[in-house]
Design goal:
The protein is α/β, with parallel strands linked by helices. Helix content is 33%, strand content 19%.
């Protein structure tokens, strides 16, 4: 998940004093005492066995039978396939902002990695992003709150003491601490997912133009998973390994050590299954229970649509029916993460969620278990105890019903926003406390019962769907109309308007006033956004000029931008842009879309628009998806774009 540090609820300074006083210290001692008592009881029982041959034989038979039963009980998931296993996962939760909290560049609160020789030091790093040290009592509380599984994000390279020399040995203290927390979950009969999570963008080495970087990436990745799989080889099927997080895909081109990858999207798709195949092969070769362990394969960017693309390929496996696939769901992002949109629950919202989640049935039909590794509404208002955005109850209800219907295993992203770890209890924040009942009800039901009832729940949400009464409703989309508008998310994600190829004027920050125009053919048009009531935008995180149904009503038209103005005076230069269509319906010009790593390759490989369409004077080999400077010279209260729209030259 992006922007995690934004969700921290308390300052690191405030938590430093509380880091070692979190709930559960007595529980640790109690658990240890109980384990010791069981060991002593077992030893005493063994010493009082009968001495005659018959008794000895009976005892041996009984012991073997008990051992067999214990073994079967210990690995109760072994004979399950991936579909059955995801059903057994129930609802899961993430231990967010904890073991993936990496602090500065290989530096934890002024403490170098080489100094980390004790669990105490690792615990200090564990609190860097605002979470308390994890305890057994916290895990008990998660189980009691309705969560039967937990996902543990971890940053492993940050604990490789001598990585610069090519020594990828993981610090034993970190291993010890992660294992300790895994055992907390094991004590509660919870399924555990363990991954490598973001981890300082080292993944970008896979996409480097420098072969030495590429070789390092492969060696590091194999060494990492060899160590992890070997360390936990004796752990049974309750422990799942996940081969990455959101990094497998476009982030092969992330900046790393000042270098940026140049892979095309097609090349990223081709590279991804090579990486996941290495993950599978490495774990399987590590011995022990790894031969049949369930493995979680990240989707492309963990994005639903990109993962369902025909270019995505799952790795091969020597174990039968043991592969799961992971995607994340934070749609719409300006509601779930940025918080710019304060309401969810329109017909468009409900249809969007239902359609997106139905796509993943493609994988369950092929026998893969589907895990929604992260989901939820994690915006700034919730992080700051500002209460729940409108429609969050219906969002949870509809999302979980979709997971029940299709048999997906959902893992709520949480950084003490919902389950407050320091209190070992569900939050009491207004509008959020009732959400916990969803998980308790699911835990008390069978997967079959939940699935049987899911469609009725979805029908109920759909029947009661309605637009935000405060939303802008003056123009609605249908395929006979083409409407131009400015898609925008401000740099702080606090202001948003209709981001995405589907024109949705209800998806607007409160107080924002757009001027959208109906396109009726060739001509000059001006669209604008007035953000004065929102305090203005200091910059842009994403923006595009869109024409709804442009490809349907005006095929092969081109957009020529004449001017972009801020506050009616400042003109933003816009050069080397291109007209394209991501979905074959909406015509667009990307103004600032950092998620397109190589626009030249993107437009040449676009299956709906083979070469893109260029305005006069723009060279095809120099186009970009970020033609404007995202840092405005002043706060933008208004933005306007004037453009010509006409048929492209033959």
């Amino acid at each position: 998940m992006k922007n995690r540090k934004l969700l921290s609820l308390l300052s690191a300074a405030a938590l430093a004093a509380a880091a070692f006083t979190g709930c559960g210290e007595k529980q640790d001692a109690t658990t240890t005492a109980a384990t010791t008592a069981k060991q002593e009881e077992s030893t005493t029982a063994a010493s009082t066995e009968g001495n005659d041959a018959t008794d000895a034989t009976d005892a041996t038979d009984t012991t073997e039978e008990a051992t067999t039963e214990a073994s079967e009980e210990a690995d109760k998931y072994l004979e399950m396939d991936a579909i059955e296993f995801t059903a057994a996962m129930g609802n899961g939760i993430n231990l967010g902002n904890t073991f993936e909290a990496i602090g500065g560049e290989r530096n934890f609160a002024g403490m170098s990695i080489s100094d980390m020789t004790s669990t105490v030091a690792v615990n200090q790093a564990e609190t860097l992003w605002g979470q308390p040290v994890t305890t057994q009592e916290m895990m008990d509380g998660m189980k009691a709150a309705g969560f039967d599984s937990i996902r543990i994000p971890a940053a492993w390279t940050k604990y490789m003491d001598n990585i610069a020399t090519g020594d990828y040995t993981i610090n034993p203290a970190f291993f010890d601490r992660v294992e300790e927390v895994i055992n907390y979950a094991k004590n509660n009969d919870m399924i555990v997912i363990l991954n490598d999570h973001w981890d300082g963008q080292w993944w970008a080495m896979f996409g480097s133009e420098n072969q030495e970087d590429v070789d390092t990436a492969w060696a590091l990745y194999e060494s990492m998973w060899t160590q992890i799989a070997t360390r936990f080889a004796d752990y049974d099927s309750f422990l799942v390994f996940e081969g990455g997080n959101e990094e497998l895909g476009n982030r092969f081109n992330d900046s790393y050590n000042g270098k940026i990858g140049k892979l095309s999207t097609d090349e990223c798709y081709a590279l991804l299954p090579q990486v996941t195949q290495k993950f599978v092969d490495t774990v399987r070769a590590a011995g022990g229970n790894n031969e049949n362990r369930f493995l979680l394969i990240p989707g492309y960017n963990t994005d639903v649509e990109m993962t369902c693309d025909d270019r995505y390929a799952m790795p091969k496996d020597t174990a039968d029916g043991k592969l799961l696939i992971s995607v994340h769901y934070y749609t719409p992002s300006n509601y779930c993460i940025g918080g710019a949109i304060a309401y969810w629950g329109s017909n468009d919202n409900v249809e969007e969620m239902n359609n997106y989640l139905a796509k993943m049935k493609k994988f369950t039909d092929e026998g893969y278990g589907v895990v929604i590794g992260e989901w939820g509404v994690a915006n700034e208002a919730i992080g700051n105890h500002g209460g729940a955005p409108g429609g969050i109850y219906e969002y949870f209800k509809n999302f979980l019903a979709n997971c029940d219907l299709y048999g997906y295993a959902p893992f709520l992203w949480d950084c003490s926003n919902y389950f407050v770890r320091s209190e070992c209890a569900w939050t009491t924040d207004e509008g959020l406390s009732d959400l916990g009942q969803f998980f308790l009800d699911a835990q008390a039901s069978t997967a079959a019962d939940l699935q049987a009832n899911a469609q009725a729940v979805l029908d109920d949400v759909k029947a009661n769907a309605h637009d935000d009464p405060n939303a802008i409703q003056d123009i609605r989309e249908d395929e006979s109309q083409s409407i131009a508008w400015i898609m925008l998310s401000s740099s702080d994600w606090g202001i948003s308007y209709s981001v995405g190829d589907k024109y949705d004027p209800s998806s607007a920050s409160a107080g924002l006033v757009p001027t959208d125009v109906i396109i009726d053919g060739e001509g000059t048009y001006t669209v604008s956004l007035d953000m004065t009531a929102n305090g203005g935008a200091s910059g842009v995180a994403f923006s595009a000029l869109g024409i709804a149904n442009g490809e349907i009503n005006f095929p092969n038209y081109v957009i020529e931008i004449k001017e972009i103005k801020i506050n009616d005076s400042t003109v933003i230069p816009c050069e080397n842009y291109y007209t394209t269509a991501d979905d074959g319906k909406c015509t667009r010009v990307n103004l600032y879309n950092a998620w397109v790593p190589d626009a030249v390759s993107a437009i040449s490989g676009n299956k709906n628009n083979e070469l893109g369409r260029l305005a006069p004077g723009i060279s095809a080999d120099s186009v970009t998806a970020t033609p404007i400077d995202p840092n405005f010279p002043e706060t933008a209260n208004t933005i306007s774009i004037t453009f010509d729209y006409y048929p492209a030259a033959e």
